[in-house]
TrEMBL record:
<keyword id="KW-0436">Ligase</keyword>
<keyword id="KW-0132">Cell division</keyword>
<feature type="active site" description="N6-AMP-lysine intermediate">
    <location>
        <position position="210"/>
    </location>
</feature>
<keyword id="KW-0547">Nucleotide-binding</keyword>
<comment type="function">
    <text>DNA ligase that seals nicks in double-stranded DNA during DNA replication, DNA recombination and DNA repair.</text>
</comment>
<protein>
    <recommendedName>
        <fullName>Probable DNA ligase</fullName>
        <ecNumber>6.5.1.1</ecNumber>
    </recommendedName>
</protein>
<dbReference type="GO" id="GO:0006310">
    <property type="term" value="P:DNA recombination"/>
</dbReference>
<keyword id="KW-0131">Cell cycle</keyword>
<keyword id="KW-0460">Magnesium</keyword>
<dbReference type="InterPro" id="IPR012310">
    <property type="entry name" value="DNA_ligase_ATP-dep_cent"/>
</dbReference>
<keyword id="KW-0479">Metal-binding</keyword>
<dbReference type="GO" id="GO:0046872">
    <property type="term" value="F:metal ion binding"/>
</dbReference>
<dbReference type="GO" id="GO:0071897">
    <property type="term" value="P:DNA biosynthetic process"/>
</dbReference>
<dbReference type="GO" id="GO:0051301">
    <property type="term" value="P:cell division"/>
</dbReference>
<keyword id="KW-0067">ATP-binding</keyword>
<dbReference type="GO" id="GO:0003910">
    <property type="term" value="F:DNA ligase (ATP) activity"/>
</dbReference>
<dbReference type="InterPro" id="IPR012308">
    <property type="entry name" value="DNA_ligase_ATP-dep_N"/>
</dbReference>
Length: 519
């Protein structure tokens, strides 16, 4: 497929607001695509580079290059060129990258150049595109959209499903089943303001401790154990104690879902940052394990001995879990069979208070009759935490003053907007430790797309968790509101920008905001 076709469809999809029109445009594109184009076309449409970071700065992209007259570049040519670029390293790397980028741009027409520059700077990012691409693919191949969605959920990657669908048609979907050894997107939660609200919404439910560690999905097939994080990154070699725990369980094949935490001598949870430290790729695993042994705590089971349990209701999956996993390795939970029973509701409140006293983050309340919605933020899981936090994307940062001279400090924070872009909700320089300041200054230098000596604009890729005290009306910000007392809790490198909170959900969480800053 020619890059020109992709660039044109991408621009037209961005320019129309009608969902059906967007889907039709994408379906047309997929009808023209070869199966081998799928692993490039799908991420490019969403504005992602399959290579991840390739280290091309704004200064290089800003230098004009005369465009080609006719389109000749294919999407696979571009992918090969960017793979080459990503591999450049060592002395003279900057010059070589510049040469390669300019050669690529010289082969592109003016419209293709615009698309490529947008792709390299992160500006063509279209957050909602994967969902639309599923519908476009369904329309192009005649497969039911729900089946495509389920296959993606179970395959973990849209491009794999797309490639198979384009090659073989709808029959290819049958091959995407839950498979031990192949990670699936974990089920995620929505938020509720209180335990009472969550119980009201869900009815019969389980209230579980919300453990503040790292989400893990553990697959065992005989002696083989594989562990993946919530972004499906494989971390098996960093967690030998989890592998050992999985091998000690009384079934040979299973998939478990849980959280890895560390407990101190008093049995209280160790702060998240220390647990996260065990996941760095350069960590000496044996030494780190000796210094901070981790424990897996499981809260769900997706498959056992060849039985796929995804469609079973929570209550039955939990019975299976209890059969497989001994008590200390299972999350603590309290079942509310009847949501109208005042005694049961009081017990749920007491469970919440006790969980917080034990040092945990909050609770997750789960509907007893719900299946496991892999890869989705299901309405059947509601998390309740005492402090409001949002996951926002850093759009830019300001050079600091005084003690912070030379450091990038004040963060511009964005939530996901309806059109796949980001809407700025406020700024903060609070809550940043010296170590985080140094780290973020370095990361922003890598992500910079513009620097006017005051504000450095960055590719919108880093997700940061922000605590705040509510919203206030403000005409200075595009959504008409800004965050009150925003402060950094931590960076969420386990999340992508596509998983950040949306403006819509932020506004919905604060229906009664009244305070005004007059600005
Ligand atoms: N008992 C539990 N059941 C489900 N998830 C749990 C539980 N205990 C801890 N968790 C963690 O809470 C998360 C659920 O919240 P959510 O789906 O919104 O993810 P998140 O955005 O990573 O949440 P947060 O930022 O609040 O930790 C899970 O991803 C998991 O890591």
């Amino acid at each position: 497929m020619l890059l020109a076709e992709l660039a044109e469809v991408s621009a037209r999809v961005a320019a129309t607001s009608a969902r059906s029109r967007k889907t039709a445009l994408l379906a047309g594109l997929f009808r023209d695509a070869a199966p081998e184009d799928a692993p490039v076309v799908i991420p490019y449409l969403a504005g992602r580079l399959p290579q991840g970071r390739i280290g091309v700065g704004w200064s290089v992209l800003r230098e004009p290059v005369p465009p080609a007259r006719d389109p000749t570049l294919t999407v696979r040519d571009v992918d090969a060129a960017l793979t080459g670029l990503a591999r450049v390293s060592g002395a003279g790397a900057q010059g070589e990258r510049r040469r390669l980028v300019r050669a690529l741009l010289a082969a592109a027409t003016a419209e293709e150049q615009r698309f490529l520059i947008g792709l390299l700077t992160g500006e063509v990012r279209q957050g909602a595109l994967d969902a639309l691409a599923v519908e476009g693919l369904a329309e192009a191949t005649g497969a039911p959209a729900a089946d495509v969605r389920r296959a993606v959920m179970l395959a973990g990657a849209l491009q794999d499903v797309a490639r198979a669908l384009l090659a073989e048609g709808p029959a290819a979907l049958a091959a995407f089943r839950l498979t031990v050894g192949r990670p699936v997107g974990p089920m995620l939660a929505h938020s509720a303001a209180s335990v009472a609200e969550a119980v009201d919404k869900l009815g019969a439910c389980a209230v579980e401790e919300k453990l503040d560690g790292i989400r893990v999905q553990v697959h065992r097939d005989g002696p083989e154990v594989h562990i993946h994080t919530r972004t499906l990154e494989e971390v098996t070699d960093r967690l030998p104690e989890v592998t050992a725990a999985a091998r000690a369980l009384p079934a040979a094949r299973f998939i478990l879902d849980g959280e890895v935490i560390a407990l101190d001598a008093e049995g209280r949870p160790v702060p998240f940052q220390r647990v996260a430290g065990r996941f760095g790729s350069r960590v000496d695993v044996a030494a780190a394990q000796a210094a901070l042994p981790l424990s897996p705590v499981f809260f769900d089971v997706l498959s056992v001995d060849g039985r796929d349990l995804l469609e079973l209701p929570t209550a039955q999956r939990h019975t299976e879990l209890a059969r497989l996993v001994p008590e200390p390795q299972r999350v603590r939970r309290l079942v509310v069979e009847d949501a109208s029973d005042a005694g049961a509701r009081a017990a749920a409140e007491e469970f919440w208070a006790r969980t917080l006293r034990r040092g945990h983050e909050g609770v997750v309340v789960k509907a007893l009759d719900a299946p496991y919605s892999a890869g989705r933020r299901g309405a059947a899981w509601l998390k309740v935490k005492p402090v409001h936090t949002l996951d926002l994307v850093v759009l830019a940062a300001e050079w600091g003053h005084g003690r912070r001279t030379g450091k990038l400090s004040n963060l511009h924070l964005g939530a996901r907007g309806p059109d796949g872009g980001f809407v700025m909700l406020g700024k903060t320089f609070k809550g940043l430790t010296d170590v985080t300041l140094d780290w973020q200054t370095e990361r922003f230098r890598q992500l910079a797309v513009a620097d006017d000596d005051h504000v450095v604009t960055v590719r919108p890729e880093l997700v940061v968790e922000i605590a705040y005290d509510g919203l206030q009306t403000s005409s200075r910000y595009p959504a008409g509101v800004t965050l009150r007392f925003a402060r950094v809790v931590r960076y969420r490198e386990d999340k992508t920008a596509a998983e950040a909170d949306t403006v819509e959900s932020v506004l919905a969480a604060h229906p009664g905001r009244e305070r005004t800053d007059g600005g």
